[in-house]
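Weekly structure sync, notes
Attendees: PL (lead), two postdocs, one rotation student
Agenda item 3: pending single-chain targets
PL asked that the sequence for the first pending target be pasted directly into the notes so everyone works from the same version. It is reproduced below exactly as submitted, 397 residues in total.
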Amino acid sequence: MTRGTTTERTETGRLTELTQWWRRAFSYSGDERDTLLVIGKSTLAATLAWVIAYDVLDARSPAFAPFSAVLIMQVTVYRSVVQSLRYVGAVVAGVLVQAALGFLAGPDQLTFVLVALIALTIGRWPVLGVQGPQVATAAFFAFSTYTSSSGDAQRFFRLGEIVVLVLIGCAIGIAVNVLVVPPLRYRSAEYGIRNLAHTLYDLLADMYPVLAEGVPDQDTTGGWRDRAARTEEMIGQARSGLQTAKESALLNPRRLLRRYRGHPGFQGYEAVLGALERTLYQLASLTRGLDRSLEGDEARQPFLQRYAVFLESVSAVAEVLTTLDETTLFQQAKRLERLTGEAETRHNDVVEETRRLSLSLADPSAPYGVLVIEATRLMEEFRYTSEILLDAAKDTD
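Predicted structure, written out during the meeting:
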């Protein structure tokens, strides 16, 4: 009974997840909808390529056309064009290797060994990128076609047919990708920034209440430091998303539409991403400063309370970036400007507190100097971010 109940719950959970996946796909633009679009466009491109290769041209190996059409269906039009050029180059190279050796040495075992050796060597050429293995694939198919054909004229025709079918498939794949909802991934740049900003906000939201209570122990500050340092993968993903967004605008006819002409562009987002990256590094340095002992220091509590208020104001700035949206960029930039001004006031309060308490900022045994310096650097980055986004929003408007 228990096993049956567990199985039913598992199946119900899977059905719920599947239902939610389809609901997200039809509700808003995201990974789910992108997946459906790629599948649909690939199916359309493959079908058109097959009809032309099989029904119109009556090709002997019609599968080359739909295979090529699906292979170069990429997440951006630019990548489709680049990969199709590399793929065509790889196929042509493989066919030429087989043609040259086949006509010179004939279709025997030694010829195949030489074809494989040369094709696999050419496939290592960096220019071909991920399409490098297609050199050997094309050469092997060409060898099979060559050996099953009779007469030099027929062999030459069949080898040429492979290249033609690949060109047809690539052309159809690119045409479908361009004409049928060409992917324009402006939002992927925003997603990466939002994720990093969420990490920064969550860390700051955990830090300032603890600092307001007193000196955190080294386990706590060590945990903060580790969290700030464990962002390399997220930064890489954010930069990848930004690169994809920039590529999606290249050769894309949708960017000419009115709704996309006013897009703020990617220079502002790239600058914000760089500022967030530096901010996380500075926060890691700040937590290292908190690791230094403040035991017995009577000034620690009022200083840390001021510092906690400053970090709280900084977290409010980071929270705005967690909802970065091109459609409301001007309003967000103005809010960011206001919150940055408030954070600068809190930063000045921290500096004034060090003067009031006569704290030594140059004493290497005390953390006050490091904490004030990192607070200043944080403000510089957020001020820079605010100015960049405001300029981008004004240009858009």
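Discussion points:
- The chain has two domains: 37-179, 187-396.
- The CA atoms of residues 185 and 286 lie 35 Å apart.
Action: rotation student to compare against the earlier draft before next sync.
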